[in-house]
Specification:
Layout (H helix, E strand, L loop, with lengths): L18 H4 L3 H8 L3 E6 L2 E14 L26 E6 L3 E8 L6 E12 L1 H9 L16 H8 L15 E4 L9 E4 L13 E4 L12
Antiparallel strand pairs: 1-2, 1-6, 2-5, 2-8, 3-4, 4-5, 7-8
Helix pairs in contact: 3-4
The chain binds a DNA duplex (13 and 13 nucleotides) through strand 3, strand 4 and helix 4.
DNA sequence: ATCAAGATTACCT
DNA sequence: GGTAATCTTGATA
């Protein structure tokens, strides 16, 4: 039985975001991603979550970006036109997924740091905790970090390069987030270019990875 | 061929 | 609040 009391939302697949959305400026896309619905389809199975926290990375000026030193086998998809998924593996355990943005050659992408589960919560619990019963407060621990999101959705490096206008992993138009409810801070977990205020999150969401950043 | 660092998480006090 | 775990990637030789 689902532990989560949230009603399963009926997803309208006609609201899929198109290429033009992604091909715009990095910071614009980053803020606009808040409230959008990340969807992964696996046959009949669907996992979906509302994006509540993101970070922007820009290889041209930002030393923390994987693209800062130019294309490599791992990051080359970041240099494509916006609308692809970039997934990398880190710390020996975790995958992180990013939305590539901008024009071809830019090397810009947005890290999806946290989502609010919308559909397929049971599958997320299986992926994250082996299907063990979870308590109510663990709901907020299901997808509240970039590694957690990938684990819950079953996203790994084999998904890197996925075309987000396709039918496997994509985004749907969701809630429009008022400018006044968007929080801004420095980015988490980096040691270079730490001064850039490029983390964006929905202020009152209990599903973000952290409240405050040092 | 070798090595250090890492866009994190879970678990401990 | 602090830190060990874990292994791929990219840089250097």
């Amino acid at each position: 039985m689902p532990v989560i009391m949230k009603p399963v939302v009926k997803l309208d697949l006609n609201l899929k975001l198109e290429k033009e959305f992604y091909a715009r400026d990095l910071l614009q896309v980053a803020k606009d991603l808040l409230g959008k619905i990340l969807v992964k389809k696996n046959g009949k199975e669907i996992t979906a979550g509302k994006i509540v926290e993101v970070e922007a990375y820009d290889g041209s000026t930002d030393e923390a970006a994987h693209s800062y030193r130019g294309p490599t086998p791992r990051n080359k998809i970041m240099f494509e036109v916006g609308g692809y998924l970039y997934v990398y593996f880190t710390y020996g355990n975790h995958f992180c997924c990013n939305v590539v943005t901008g024009k071809k050659g830019k090397g810009t992408a947005v890290l999806i740091r946290a989502v609010e589960p919308v559909s397929g919560q049971d599958k997320m619990i299986i992926n994250r905790f082996g299907g063990k019963k979870i308590s109510g407060k663990d709901l907020y621990n299901l997808t509240s970090g970039p590694g957690k999101v990938c684990k819950a959705f079953g996203i790994n490096t084999s998904d890197s390069g996925t075309d987000l206008t396709g039918n496997k992993i994509f985004l749907l138009n969701g809630t429009v987030i008022k400018k006044s409810s968007i929080g801004v801070s420095r980015r988490i977990g980096i040691t270079k270019s730490t001064e850039l205020p490029w983390r964006f999150f929905i202020k009152d969401s209990p599903f973000i990875s952290r409240k405050a950043v040092k």
